[in-house]
Write a structure and sequence with these properties.
Blueprint lengths: L9 E3 L12 E9 L7 E5 L4 E6 L7 E11 L5 E5 L3 E9 L2
Antiparallel strand pairs: 1-7, 2-5, 2-7, 3-4, 3-6
């Protein structure tokens, strides 16, 4: 399956290291659904640094990360270069240009 980058939530199931592919969002929650293996990881980065990262501690157990205030990511300024397994559901409260 391909990443679904329209709608709310965004559904990311494939890592992509290209900054231009992701829309601008104001993230309120990330749910990492069904990481399959202990020590699997995901990361969200901008062009310079890691912004959010997760490590699977228990196989097949999801991870929820809430943001308050929301994490604002501009269009074409972020990427998901690492997603070892599972899917990321990225919930937002609006679009950031």
């Amino acid at each position: 399956m391909a990443n679904a980058l329209t709608g709310n939530p965004l559904v990311i199931d494939t890592a992509d290291s290209t900054l231009a592919n992701f829309p601008g969002v104001s993230i309120t929650k990330i749910v990492w659904n069904a990481p399959t293996t202990i020590a699997h990881t995901f990361s969200i980065q901008d062009s310079a640094k890691e912004l959010v990262a997760g490590v699977c501690a228990v196989a097949n157990q999801g991870v929820v990360i809430d943001f308050f205030p929301p994490l604002r990511l501009k269009s074409g300024k972020w990427k998901v270069p690492t997603l070892s397994s599972g899917k990321l559901f990225v919930y937002s409260q609006g679009v950031v240009k």
